[in-house]
Amino acid sequence: MNETDVIIIGGGTGGYATALRAAALGLRVVLAERELIGGTCLHRGCIPSKAMLHAAELVDGIAEARERWGVQASVAAVDWAALTATRDDIVARNHTGVEGHLTQAGVQVVRGTARLTGPRTVRIEGAGEPSGEPDGEFTARRGIVLATGSRPRLLPGLTPDGRRVVTSDDALFAPGLPRSVLVLGGGAIGVEYASLHRSMGAEVTLVEAADRLLPLEDADVSRHLARGLKKRGIAVRTGSTLVDTELLEDGIRATLRTPRGEHVVVEAERLLVAVGRVPVTDGLDLAAAGPATDGRGYVPPADWSRLETAVPGVHVVGDLLPPPSLGLAHASFAEALLVAETLAGIPSPPVDYATVPRVTYSAPQTASVGLTEDQARAGGRAVAVNTMPLTATAKGMVHGRGGIVKVVAAVDGAGGDRGLPCSNEVESLGKTGEVLGVHLVGPHVSEMIAESQLIVGWDAEPSDVARHLHAHPTLSEAVGEAFLTLAGRGLHQH
Ligand SMILES: Cc1cc2nc3c(=O)[nH]c(=O)nc-3n(C[C@H](O)[C@H](O)[C@H](O)COP(=O)(O)OP(=O)(O)OC[C@H]3O[C@@H](n4cnc5c(N)ncnc54)[C@H](O)[C@@H]3O)c2cc1C
Ligand SMILES: NC(=O)c1ccc[n+]([C@@H]2O[C@H](COP(=O)([O-])OP(=O)(O)OC[C@H]3O[C@@H](n4cnc5c(N)ncnc54)[C@H](O)[C@@H]3O)[C@@H](O)[C@H]2O)c1
Questions:
Q1: Which residues line ligand 1 (CB under 6 A)?
Q2: Annotated catalytic residue 224
Q3: Mean pLDDT across the chain, nearest whole number?
Q4: Spans of the chain, pLDDT less than 50
Q5: Can you list the alpha helix ranges (DSSP code H) found in 420-493?
Q6: Which of 118, 196, 338, 444 has the largest count of CB atoms under 10 Å?
């Protein structure tokens, strides 16, 4: 029997980050991982997809150079082997880096599939091979952390074959990208992969069952995103469902039902299923320790302030958690800090999910934090809303790719529940209170959202922000200007 302080099952972002923080706080940690440290995000998710989206942006930049700036350039070809080698090198260097951090921190990484055998005991199958790691049963004196993550949700009758029907697990790892693709699901994965394939020259149809893309984001974000994707030649079909799929020799033939009830047939070389993810608990033997799954397979904590299940000492992080957790790598980092600090017995603030930024790395990008306008109004708040086009700034014109900054702020005192086109109306509405949400669409907004997450997280008001100037000329000026207007001091926005 191997005794330790903490056993973590799953070495993705949630699991490895819990291990690093717990070890830094002096706890002895065993981390069980059956595949590769880094999990979904590093090997099949965030990092390879963002590496390729960066390459896609460069391809788009060549078209812009030619069309707007007179640069006589064109893309002769994309050398797939070179592109994927760079991507794989980035992943490999990150992988080595994370493994190095774990070694330095003194975390004992055990390769194998773990299952619970009791509220404080775990069996790791395959441990002991090939390199003499201790085999078998481990006991945790402080607690166990479940961090087994998620996998793509599949639809009946659409079994991935790695060629004609794929998920995000294999879409980027085939020998090349298809000439045409039907993307099913207009969430973050569907939007990013549709954008990537289009940049690389594919014909893309993006099908979303809800009446808008990114249905959880602000309606204006969905509208501007759809407009930007359509402008790039992507066929966006919202409010549509897949009613039939026929496998062809070299592709698929899909029948879609449109919002009007019509049937439309689309043929494509590949169907990418991106309709969400489901938690992974199979083989964990949760019943042996006690924590239960909910109806959707998530492991809900009994105490969100400690992310602890109904079984004392058994904690959960990452994609295994139901909403309000967000299925995002950086949310899992925050959860990891909380759980490691809780296990170490030091005070730790609960995760404030309302201030976790949400970014989609498509072209155009979207980035948001806090409440959407509809959520703020549904919560009974009187709100002031100001929307500033990025192209109202000089740098926005330089980029020439549209975009918006939308700020939703509370209104204290007199005033009503209505939109706010200009600064004079702020005064007639009353004083604006704290900023409830910020929503960005356009180039580079993934990097611009950081200040807004502090603004929302620190309950700042537009007048607090308006005191601080933004460098000129930058895209961020549009954010500054949106707040200046809400504070009644607008310069360029009338
Ligand atoms: C295509 C794609 C793109 C994404 N892009 C982003 C992004 O840009 N930004 C962002 O914030 N998030 C992104 N995400 C989401 C992000 O990847 C997840 O939120 C994150 O990986 C969750 O981490 P996790 O530790 O909970 O689970 P995972 O990363 O899934 O890790 C779980 C680990 O547990 C291991 N495991 C499972 N069962 C056992 C067992 N019984 N024994 C031992 N090991 C086990 C698995 O092998 C795996 O390595 C993306 C996801 C996808 C699919
Ligand atoms: N940039 C990022 O942060 C990023 C990128 C990729 C993935 N992720 C995370 O990975 C997870 C999975 O992403 P996802 O996009 O697969 O899931 P998702 O749940 O965000 O989106 C799935 C979409 O598919 C739609 N849908 C469901 N069934 C459908 C059907 N039969 N036909 C048409 N549409 C259907 C849903 O309405 C939804 O809009 C999420 O937690 C996401 O946040 C994050």
A1: 9-15, 32-35, 39-41, 45-46, 49-50, 113-114, 147-150, 168, 189, 280, 283-284, 318-319, 327-330, 332
A2: no
A3: 94
A4: 414-429
A5: 423-429, 445-457, 462-466, 477-486
A6: 196
pTM of the model: 0.96
186 is in an annotated binding site: yes
Bridge partners (DSSP) of residue 121 are 118, 139
> What residue type is 127 in one-letter code?
A
Strand 108-111 and strand 29-33: the pairing is parallel
Best of 37, 50, 148 to mutate for ligand 1, by most ligand atoms within 8 A of CB? Answer: 148
Catalytic residue among 54, 468, 472, 492: 472
Q: What is the pLDDT of residue 421?
A: 43
Among all bound ligands, the one having the nearest atom to the CA of 238 is: 2
Look at the domain 165-275 and name its fold: FAD/NAD(P)-binding domain (3.50.50)
Give CATH superfamily name and number for 3-43+85-151+278-355.
FAD/NAD(P)-binding domain (3.50.50.60)
What pLDDT, in 10s, does the model give residues 380-402? 888 999 999 999 999 999 999 99
Query: Which ipTM did the prediction report?
Result: 0.99
Q: Per-residue pLDDT tens for 298-327?
A: 999 999 999 999 999 999 999 999 999 999
Superfamily of domain 364-486: FAD/NAD-linked reductase, C-terminal dimerisation domain (3.30.390.30)
Helix/strand/coil (H/E/C) assignment for every residue in 199-252: HCCCEEEEEECCCCCCCCCCHHHHHHHHHHHHHCCCEEEECCEEEEEEEECCEE
Tokens of 336: 């990891």
- Find the 186 Cα to ligand 2 centroid distance in Å: 6
